[in-house]
Amino acid sequence: MNEIINAMIERRSCKSFKSDMLPKETIDEIITAGLWAANGRALQTPVIIAVTDKETRDKLSELNAAVMGANSDPFYNAPVVLIVLAPKEHPNRVYDGSLVMGNLMLAAHSMGVGSCWIHRAKEVMATEEGKAILKAAGLEGEWEGIGNCVIGYPDGPLKEAQKRKDGRVYRVE
């Protein structure tokens, strides 16, 4: 089978990470894949904030947990958070940002790096603390958080894939 399709079939969400930091080159290569995602009208509006600073990462985790109503780390100990955002006024923001998220996760998998899409970026980035993180990163304007892609080295084996459900393809021939 084609290696790209095979990667799509084999990729799993990682829910337990080692705290070891990834090399900057690895992070940058994963980000590059995200930036090459398909996007509406080739406008390339989504942006990525790469968070490797532990204090900021922990603050994001705390904010995310508060939105979720939990006390645990919703980032599963991952040392890197790639926040995908898009301009609020862009009508394709969620679609384009979701394609970026998919590319990030597939690229990570192809490099032996674990990844997981963590929701609540929209709610976290709308808080005053979230807006301060945007400002610290140099982003101005109105941005909507699309997703948090947490990445790092898996701490143990990933779960097996669930069998794909039947009856999900319909044809008009």
Uncertain segments: none
Let me know the average pLDDT: 97
Q: CATH homologous superfamily of one domain?
A: NADH Oxidase
Query: Structural class, from helix and strand content?
Result: alpha+beta
CATH topology call of one domain? NADH Oxidase
In CATH, the architecture of one domain is: 3-Layer(aba) Sandwich
- Strand fraction band? 15-25%
Number of helices: 6
* β-strand number: 4
**Can you write the helix and strand succession as a string?**
HHEHEHEHHE
* Global Rg: 16 Å
Amino- and carboxy-terminal Cα gap: 25 Å
CATH class of one domain: Alpha Beta
Gross morphology: globular
Largest sheet: 4 strands, antiparallel
Record the strand order, biggest sheet: 1-2-4-3
Portion of residues in helices? 25-40%
Summary, kept brief:
By secondary structure, this protein is of the alpha+beta class. It contains 6 helices and 4 strands.
Keywords:
NADH Oxidase; globular; 16% strand; 4-stranded antiparallel beta sheet; single chain; alpha+beta; 173 residues
Write a structural description.
The chain has a domain at 28-138: 3-Layer(aba) Sandwich (NADH Oxidase), CATH 3.40.109. Helix 2 (24-35) packs across helix 4. It is α+β, with helices and mostly antiparallel strands and 173 residues long. The chain is globular. The model has no long low-confidence stretch (mean pLDDT 97). The protein has helices spanning 3-10, 24-35, 54-68, 93-110, 121-125, 128-137; strands spanning 47-51, 80-87, 114-118, 143-152.
